[in-house]
Structures
1.
Amino acid sequence: MSATTATPAEGVPNRALITVCAMAATLMQALDGTIANVALPYMQGGLSSTADQVTWVLTSYIVAAAIFTSPVGALAARYGRKRIFLISVAGFTAASVLCGAAQSLEQMVLFRLLQGAFGAALVPLSQSTMLDIYPPAQRGSAMAVWGMGVMLGPILGPTLGGWLTETYDWRWVFYVNLPFGVFAFAGLWAFMADDRTGSVRRFDWFGFTTLSIGIGAFQLMLDRGQRADWFTSTEIIIEAGVAALGLWLFLVHLLTAEKPFIPPRIFKDRNFLSGFLMMFVVGVILFSTSALLAPYLQTLGGYPVFDAGLVLAPRGVGTMAAMLVAGRLADRLDPRLLMLFGVSVIAWTLWDMTAWTPDLNTHHLMFTTAMQGFGLGFVFIPLQVIAFATLAPELRTDGTGLTSLMRNIGSAIGISITVAVLEHDTQVLHAEIAGLVSPLNRMLQWSGVAQFWNPATPTGAALLNAEVTRQAQIMAYANDFHLLLLLCIPTALLVLMMRRPAGPRAAPDPAHAAMD
């Protein structure tokens, strides 16, 4: 990926309007990663699919966005950032309408793939646009505002999705993109400067193809593994082999090609490499918890779809508060300390979630999710500062695209693994609990219990099995939260590997960029 020619930051006309339109595009794309979460049970019935099949609505979008992030820089350099930006906004909006009109799971997955492919360019192009239109003294502030869109989108998605599903229909979680897409397209077309450079640099199609095949096959293996019984299935073995071959060829090509589309020297920067890997963990935790919490609240907690989304809203509030605070502290304290604090807060919330039960007090639940959002915000903003602090200026465009790519890959892998672990553990725990169900169990000998959960009658057996399944799911969710908790340990180690940025830095104060 290569940077497009930057426009002069000083005296850019209509800068505030361009910012609003770029942020509308960013928020629209970020929302769609999670807005469908709370609507999945309704989609499952409307599209006649199983619980594991309907998760493709989430993962197909994320993996397509991950794959098509890589060629954005080269396309923008050749055809102009404005042109690619407009095509992406228009394609994303049209694909959103098609998703809302889908009549089968196959159509939905296809349209979500298109939506992810067009949406892949929105985040890196909006970030590079804001870097170009703001002078260096205000770029930290602009990035803080941009970061709010990137982080708040996935967090607020379930809340908005719940309200739309309950008030209208699940199809409106996609139709809602139409006014935002039209607004962003019109504003960018009218106010953004044309920056075509006429570059004829050849794009590294071999590298892009091998990476895409590797990521796609690996994602398919993760999504199909649980249903196909993993490596006892020929299909999973083939998918694993294709994934390994594609990623190996990409790695060899990256290290040996004369001009690969990802410059290998970018990974020699210790701060960027650590931040690159941390962004993977951020993607896993941010999206996996969103994908787990929405069905947990609805299926086990008995929350209506809108209430489930509303209960998750404090995560967004916590993230916004953290970004305001972390942005002001970024130049006064060591960013690594801020990130360690954020990781510690995330770890505490995940530890707390391992003890959750469906009858958990709502206020406690909302406080924990708010603190989780707070911790994510304290990781994300300092990470943007420190990951690019020592990176060569000519590599920053590649760096922004790669971190976006890594966040998307982390999101896709995280959702697939946590869903697979949830289904596997539910089955195993169901078998273990069912083994304790016998007429000799004293709990089942109580008169009220024996009458209600009588395994000798069809109704009693069904009710007893439903309760066993419910208990198994509660423990399986706890196992998933524990797995995510363990991810915080290597994340803290990555923070310790980073170097503190040298010299004073302007605090990323979102108020400056917002009021400019």
2.
Amino acid sequence: MTESSLAAGPLQIFYTVSFPEAQAHYVDIEMDIKGLAQNQLTLKMPVWTPGSYLVREYAKNVESFTAEHNGKAVNVTKTRKNAWQIATQGLTSVKVKYRVYGNEISVRTNFIDASHGFLSPAGTFIYPDGRLNLPSTIHIKPYKNWDKVSTSLASVNNDAFTVTAPNYDILFDSPIEVGNQDIFGFDAAGVKYEVAMYGGGNYDKDRLKKDMTKIIEEETAIFGENPNKRYVFIVHNYQRGGGGLEHLSSTVLGASRDGYATESGYLGFLSLVAHEHFHLWNVKRLRPIALGPFDYDNENYTTNLWIAEGFTAYYDNLIVRRAQLNPVESYLKELTADMGTMDNTPGTRVQPLSQSSYDAWIKGYRPDENSINTGISYYTKGSIIGMLLDLEIINDTKGAKSLDDVMRYMYNEYYKTKKRGYTDAEFKAGLEKFAGKNLDDFYKKYINGVDPVNYDQYLGYAGYHVVNDLEGSNNPTLGATYVNAAGHVRVATVLRGTAAWKDGINVYDEITAIDGAEVHDPKTMLDGKKVADKISVSIIRDGLPMTIPVTLLRNTQVRYRIESLPNVTPQQMTVRNKWLKIQ
């Protein structure tokens, strides 16, 4: 008889979470398991958290793992990096105790100190192997003067410090903030929203309520429904903060506490809100078939993160624009920033977009000094591809349909009706359904290939064209980026195909002189030089001085702007108005 069949009974699981040494970054967990009827029980901790595609080895932060029954020790054997086997023969219950160290500030990892406790559940709670369907109850004992809990998990008997999860997929998808956060709420799209602000900041609650409502209602209109009854924004405000991680009924955002006062900082925060909130449909419910049910022990590979993340990155700024919170001109500048980022990345001509998604586990979250040469972000290029497809559909249907209709159709067809994720072919078919044409060539060039994007073709549908302000320039460059520390200029990256690449300037080299003239500022070190000049670059590499001859090449970086075409046709204006919601 297998362990899983022996464990078929209705196990009851209760966690007690406490912070006796919060100041030292610890959370203590007690796990009470009742209803045992097996000889041994294996408990596991996930190695990654959904939405962040990297094996983070959360078990590395676990210590002091013990088990007992009625106060007597029970034998525990660690059987793999994230699994503990407990001898439970003859026992009906067991209490497991362990501690978790959390001192990494991010939206996907635990962080505990004397001011608050942020718990990423995948890195906090262990679970019975093979029993992800089990419900659990969590009781939280706050540290000292902490008096608030913010989470999307339902409370028990109106006790905010006791919450319950119907299964582990939902528990692992429900972060918990404990402390003295500033909490405010509002209603939008028929849903109750809570915003929990940690770390202070110069935010205006009334303005946020109004503008977040507009964003939420714009997004809800795309899908035709808001599937939550309650949704929680957990916002961590730091001196310099950023990033976000989506969850089923909540999200965690990183922000700069003093960034709300500037228009760019405020709009950037709203874009982050729009991005993570859009995920409650796109990826949390409408998802690639590989992303659920989850394997918490291993990587979950998909070639469709350009849809799950890239399309979401396309919609975030677009939603802020549609909500009339960002002028058209500013939105177009944001688009050109993404276009420039992509085309100034040599890796976009090396790695196909679908492969960028598949390689997220080994490349996307582990960038190094050569990443810019070997890969492209599925966020950035996926966002551009979303724009192209949106414009294609709007143009082909004369303004009747858009990418919105594809997203709504796929959500209804696969999440609601088929109750499963989509395959590559199924999403392509959904796009073709509304574009009214075969997209094989588009996929060959832009999804599975590395062809340069023809911006003018697609932006032309809306009466725009792209200008590269650097197209006629003939400026020389080494083709490197630098770190300038107290006048010491060190190479940080070397771009593929540039002079530095071809002639052997390396990352970490310290550039000391050009043609004998000392270098203290990379911005001026090529003053007076021209393309095709042969120069001598003096460097220090691994403590040894050397001189490298280099032939300067033209700087091929781009700087785009989007301009309106002369004599825009009524058809183009129809596309433009539909795309940008110009009223």
3.
Amino acid sequence: MKHSSEAPHSVYGVEKWGKGLIEVTEGGEIGLRNPLAPEAPAISLPGILRDLDQRGIRAPMILRISSYLENEIAHINESFAAAIARADYKGCYRGVFPIKVNQQAQVIDRIVEFGQKYDYGLEAGSKPELVIALAHRLAKEALIVCNGVKDAEFIQLAILSRKIGFNTVIVLESPKEADTVIEVYNELGIEPLLGVRVKLTNQISGKWEESSGDRSAFGMNTDQLVAVVDKLRDAGLIQCLKLQHSHLGSQVPDVNDVRRAVGEACRYYTELTREGVPLTHLDLGGGMGVDYTGEKKATENSINYTVEEYCANVVETVAYAMDEAEVEHPTLVTESGRAVVATSSMLVFNVLESTLYDAPNGPEVEPDDHHMVADLAAVHGYLSHERLQECWNDANFYRNELRALFRRGYVDLRQMARAERIYLSLMARIKALVASEHVETDVDDQLEKLADIYHCNFSLFQSLPDVWAIDQLHPIVPLQMLDQTPDRRAVLSDITCDSDGKIDRFILADGVSPSLPVHTLPEDDDYYMGVFFVGAYQETLGDLHNLFGDTNVVTIDIKPDGGFDLLHEQEGDTISEVMAYVEFDPSDCVAAFRKMVDEAISTGTLKAKDRKTLMSAYRDSINGYTYYE
């Protein structure tokens, strides 16, 4: 429990996880800072929403901040450049962005734009992603790294793209894939640019530890690697093998895991070089993590290193290994996705209503009420700090006994309603006593089970799939009223008809909590929530639970003077669009509904004058937003 002398907003820990991008303004609102203009004041996020609302763009929405994306690309590239200079490293850095992490056109277009001066490229793990990559005019030295399972068509396109200047690297994942490459080469007569993916035995810690080690899904073991090298040599293609790919893992929490994995990758690189393989590039895959919680610890949702430390560890480890083996320093490649794009997007939604688990006052006991109703009400008479646990025990005992009596028919509906209201009024007083103590108590922990439910205008399954599927944590905080002490605690329920559609783990200043401190909902204004750092995966993994589609998406650029420019707006899915996703033809649905309306007129159950109103309502709905309006 926070002491009253601290700022009301300190409970949310924004200063810990905000990365200098998110802060609380003097007016108690979430503010966004421009990292490209650090002297500029923060711009109010609720102010942005009010401006967008006037333009007809409403929550729920994904809000992308262009300058955040530009800043992260610069940060990673310049940190590698600085580490290379400090270590007197003889190679250079060529990063690539994995398209799978965020496939949205506005994101990829800006990554290519901001990455031009760094020769920043793209990673494609499928044919559709390769098609996207080849539609972008990359810098001359930029790479397109092709990972994943590849058929002959994929390989043919990758090889042919070299004819128009793309540095498209086909990373061989298996001996069978090497056979396919050789077949396509024999048909085309064009030499490919090749890489080979090597499984590392070192396994990282963290949520995605299964993506590393020799049980990982992709890449070859040592025996397969040697077989592929021999195949390429026999086919006259060994000179095409330029890149070794060794994926470190995903969201690696511990920098020492990075060092160990890079060291093992270097051993393969130097041994392949001794085998006569003319390698020039060492691709260390993904792994650079994001500190979602601000803990700066090696935990599932945090990391114990900075971008600068990550880059320094990679460069120093490779430099030492290559110098020891007397091998030329390779061009370093990483496929950081989460670290590039996570911070650039946030989900914003409004709270529609609340279900409260306390009440300001209870009703009077009536003469004919069961004696346990009076016993429950009598707890009010001895409720105090000293008897807090006793009162908690008594209140729950009497309430549970009354529920049992109701089920057996000894208590009627109105008595039960009065009892529930009395119980809720006791909970309100107990919560107030616990809050005033400023110390943790056993009752405080038990009260977490009575957190309110704030019903919110979003779909967890569409916009935050990792929160539901793998317990990913994202910072979540109210966007306004942060100069006022939160007077309630709540879990967040989404708009879907699914009991799993809720968030009940929150990042706070003092750790992870099963409830979020919130404010009593204002009567005359929207109460907004923001979920931050959702740019990685959340925009592309969502499903259509209850046919809630994509939200509105807005891309803005924060101006140095404190304003913003609206760069792009993508309207969210309409009902007709999501119907088409699941194989319904909207026009057929309109026709079928019209037929039933006309039949109702024929049988007299509907008046002819109501036909227009009913058909208009159906058409308006089918063309409307899937979320609450």
